[in-house]
Amino acid sequence: MQDIQIAYHNVKSRIEEACSRVNRNPRDVSIIAVTKYVSMETTQAALNQGISHIGESRVQDAVPKWELLGEQATWHFIGHLQTNKVKDVVGRFSYIHSLDRLSLAEEIEKRSRQKGLVTNCLVQVNISGEETKFGLKPNQVLEFVKETSKMKYINLCGLMTMAPYELVPEQTRSVFRQLRELRTELNGLQLPRVQLEHLSMGMSNDFEVAIEEGATFIRLGSVLVGNEKN
Questions:
Q1: 43 CB contacts (<8 Å, ≥6 apart)?
Q2: Within 13 Å, how many C-alpha atoms sit on residue 205's CB side?
Q3: Tens of pLDDT, residues 37-48
């Protein structure tokens, strides 16, 4: 278990520095601790430091953690979500970051209606065009948002993307900038029931660039809580 207190302090300092470069308030950036590669004990240690957002990407690993620790944090499902797993996610996770197809939206709508709640969803966009990544193409997002916004039990609250891993983080900037510009374009259309507040982008290797381009959620694993499953 790495020293999360030191890691958390360092991350917050880096966030403040990134925000100061572009005149942003650090309070507008939320840290999601990605705990999929760490134990229950390490996840609890992160919560003990005051981290309030937890991100998981595999249902089978996430549910046991949620059952024990659920009330201590806001939970984000950040991985590719299979339709048959939606029943296990809705009601446990406050945010789903990986809405990327209509069949998934329909299942989230169905399960949310059954539970009498509204699920916050971010549309995943494959800005980089990598075949190994999930997400809608940028030119597909408008029609998808129009269709999904008709669903009463889904709250479209933002966009998410994953940039390619680059040794030089600056090389990811165009990906993050394009997502921000897409959000601006969509919000400018003033579509009914669509107010895309969040940009979920930036991971351990490139979160400072993402912040400079407007990230509101950054998803941090190795730089914050480590990796215990190498």
A1: 33, 35, 54, 65, 69, 225
A2: 11
A3: 999 999 999 999
Alpha-carbon distance 27 to 7, whole Å? 18
Degrees to nearest 5, angle at CA 106 with 160 and 52: 40
Q: What is the pLDDT of residues 166-187, one digit of tens each?
A: 999 999 999 999 999 999 999 9
The CATH superfamily assigned to 4-220 is Alanine racemase (3.20.20.10)
- Residue in the block written with tokens 């009601």: 91
Under 8 Å between Cβ of 180 and 214: yes
User: CA torsion 38→43→48→54, rounded to 10°?
Assistant: 120
Count CB neighbours of 147 within 10 A. 12
Domain extents for the chain? 4-220
